[in-house]
Amino acid sequence: MLVMGVCTVYFLVPIWWLFVGSSKSRAQFTGTAPLWFADFDLAGNVRELLAYRDGVFLRWMVNSLAYTGGSALLGTLLAAMCGYALAKYRFPGRETLFNVVLGGVLVPATALALPLFLLFSRVEATNTFWSVFLPSLVNPFGVYLARIYAAASVPDELLEAARIDGSGEVRSFFTVSVRLMFPALVTIFLFHFVAVWNNFLLPLIMLGDERLFPVTLGLYSWNTQVNQLPELRGLVIVGALLSIAPLVVAFLFLQRFWRSGLGAGAVK
Amino acid sequence: MTGVVKRIGFGGHGRAIAFFVVPFGVLFTLFYLVPIGYAVVQSLYTVERTGTFGPAREVFGGLVQYRRVFSDVPFWESVLRVLAFGVVQVPVMLGLALLLALLLDSGLVRGRRFFRLAFFVPYAVPGVIAAIMWGFLYSPNLSPFTALTANVDLLSADLVLWAMANVVTWVYVGYNMLIIYSALLAIPAEVYEAARLDGAGHFRTAWSIKIPLVMPAIVLTTVFSIIGTLQLLAEPQVFRSFSSAVSSTYTPNLTVYSTSSVPNFQLAAAFSVVLALATFALSFTFLKFTQRRGER
What we know:
The complex is a heterodimer.
Chain A: H1 2-22, H2 26-31, H3 42-51, H4 56-88, H5 94-106, H6 109-122, H7 129-136, H8 140-153, H9 156-164, H10 169-180, H11 182-198, H12 201-206, H13 215-224, H14 231-267
Helix pairs in contact in A: 1-14, 3-14, 4-7, 4-8, 4-11, 5-8, 8-11, 9-10, 11-14, 13-14
Chain B: H1 2-8, H2 14-43, E1 45-49, E2 56-60, H3 64-70, H4 73-106, H5 112-120, H6 127-138, H7 146-149, H8 160-185, H9 189-197, H10 202-213, H11 215-230, H12 234-239, H13 252-260, H14 265-295
Antiparallel strand pairs in B: 1-2
Helix pairs in contact in B: 2-14, 3-14, 4-8, 4-11, 5-8, 6-8, 11-14, 13-14
């Protein structure tokens, strides 16, 4: 119990500090007790953040949502389809395909970022939304998980029955299999979401236009300017709080899925 | 007859299979295989200039870039640095994750839901944001732990690596704990029944039954951690604005990034190829090694 208590403090104090810090004015930030509130003015700080440089922060948040949410949704579907085919059909080259994809899991994303940048600059497509979005769609680990889940949760007999009922393979996938795989798909989605959300190097290399930044890159760029523009420090702190809040909330709601899904992936 | 056709062909579902596989396959080829191939090709070229300011042209240089990589002292120092980091940080992080998972699973703890969430929350914080946050927490004039930061400079050359190790640990313990915990939940109750009949206590059960049974999960988390360690980039990049001790070649990935922004793409490509191979080799060796042991 003591261990649990100490660890809770360790994990939660930084976030608590961020929350408290976000509620203070610039003068109070250094002058008052760091772990307790002074004049609570979170709303004022948020207003200041949203107004700064024509509301570029809000734009970053929307960008992040598009990059991560969009690529995770679409990427999960593509990975699920591929993993499903690997699990449910026998076809020539199946094992080769699976092994190549599995090798892809071990390739560090950062080793890909630089050649991707060079390739995109060949077709003059760097510094665009697509230069970050398209590469983020590919999720080899998702294929691996989808194959395991499909093998475990979609019985062949059911597909056979659907065939006898005259349902096409693609229709069976969307009406029957996707439903059976749903908890697994949520897990793949969350994994994918977090991976893109955490990917720092790709946007750092690809994007030059501030208005295309995801929120992580935006806050990073502000943080590097704190020495010249001290007022940015407060904004970075409020911004950090606002940027992690949606994901924390999502975790609270989706944790049931996480657990059941993670188990299946880890045990096999 | 149809059986034979099925065995060698697509079993009559060729079109459906193509529908399922091709979209991912195309993207995987475009954004994984082609870039890897391109990096390998790039790394074999070198830029020559006629005179100091003459036009640059790419010429085939064979393994020239690789010779540079292997004689680049700061790069190998950075490799040693992340290896030292990994050798300490990965076991600490996974040890803690395993301990917490076992405690959650032991039935000794009340409020499991709360703890599980509390430990997992940091995982929602992206590496960059976590590094910015902890950077402030370490800074002497801002930190809530002034008693500590006034006496120990956590951002000094000696300690900054471990200050970063703490950031990584903070973010990922809960995630790894959850993977191990899920594996623990999957252990069938009969196994425990048998252990209890044999008179095994909590520790004995944990040591002789639970840990061996969740070994696959631990292996998985270890491989991910190894890959993560070699990819270390966001944390050191952020810490550069907090500490002058973090150079532009502090980790291998920072080296790749700063070499490419010079720009020397050919050399940067050679760096990334070497790095990707090293990551691949390390994870693969670890997997093989643990599999062999598991087969005894």
